[in-house]
Amino acid sequence: MDIREQVKEVIITKGGIAKSADFVAAGIRAVDVVNLCNAGFLDRVRHGYYELAEKNSVSEEQLLATLIPKGIVCVESALFHYSYSEFAPRKWSIAIPRSISRTKLNVDVLALQPYYVQAELYDLGKTTDDFNGVILPVYDRERTICDCFKYRSKLDNEIFNKALNAYANDTKKNLSNLSVYAKKLRVYKKVTELMDVLLNG
User: Fold this and answer.
1) What 3-state DSSP class applies to 39?
2) Rg (alpha carbons) of the chain, rounded to whole number
3) What is the C-alpha separation between 46 and 4, in angstroms, rounded?
4) What integer pLDDT is reported at residue 57 of this predicted model?
5) pLDDT score at 103
6) What is the pLDDT of residue 38?
7) How far is CA 137 from CA 42, 152, 175, 180, 201, in A?
8) What are the start-end ranges of the E strands in the chain?
9) d(CA 111, CA 90)
10) d(CA 118, CA 124)
11) Distance CA 4, CA 152 (A)
């Protein structure tokens, strides 16, 4: 098997993106990887991460899962996922622990909108769901709605209002969770006042 076939096999086995260590484990030298990048066979996604240069070989969802495993889909991206917004965000909104190194987010192939979250609130409402065939961590409906209040200044008015109305009409909503999260995120008064109007007219 020639070197290109070997490299391609490693990348396919790893779901479309391979690390330098994956190549080393398969007996492929670092110099070969560099040469294949220079030859246009491989693309460097981020330091130490590579994909085949065939365009669109890896979905954005797969890139997100591989390159930012600590990222949790949140705010605008979560609203779109739950159909609370018709606006497909140009950037992936992701929650990440405040302690994470900023360099980990230097990913040329993905447009990111990071939200830095303190450790004690990071896992609140975290779940997983299917995004175009890739399982990604995402905040549940209630955390997403609370985050709309928390990051109110960053959200477009129309998106904010539509999201709250959509949530109020959602049969899957869980108001007791909403109340618990709102207290922990310190948006309880705002959330209850507005939801009361939406739910009870």
Assistant:
1) coil
2) 20
3) 20
4) 65
5) 77
6) 85
7) 28, 22, 22, 20, 34
8) 18-19, 42-46, 49-52, 72-73, 92-97, 112-117, 126-131, 134-139
9) 7
10) 11
11) 49
Confirm if 77 and 100 have CB atoms less than 8 A apart: no
**130 is written with which tokens?**
């299917």
Amino acid (1-letter code) at residue 180: V
- The DSSP code for 113 is E
23 Cβ contact partners less than 8 Å away, ≥ 6 residues apart: 7, 10, 30, 32, 33, 50
Global pTM reads 0.77
Whole-angstrom distance, CA of residue 134 vs CA of residue 56? 15
Chain length of the chain = 201
Q: Tokens at residue 74, please?
A: 């949140």
Element (H, E) at 24: helix 20-25
Instruction: Characterise 180 by phi-psi region: left (phi > 0), alpha (psi -120 to 50), beta (else).
Output: alpha
Nearest Cα to Cα of residue 26 among 8, 41, 44, 42: 8
Question: What are the residue ranges in the chain where pLDDT is below 70?
Answer: 1, 55-57, 201
Q: In the block, which residue shows the tokens 């246009």?
A: 40
Q: Tell me how crowded residue 62 is: count the other CB atoms within 10 A of its CB.
A: 19
Beta carbons of 28 and 22 less than 8 angstroms apart: no
Cα 158–chain centre separation = 23
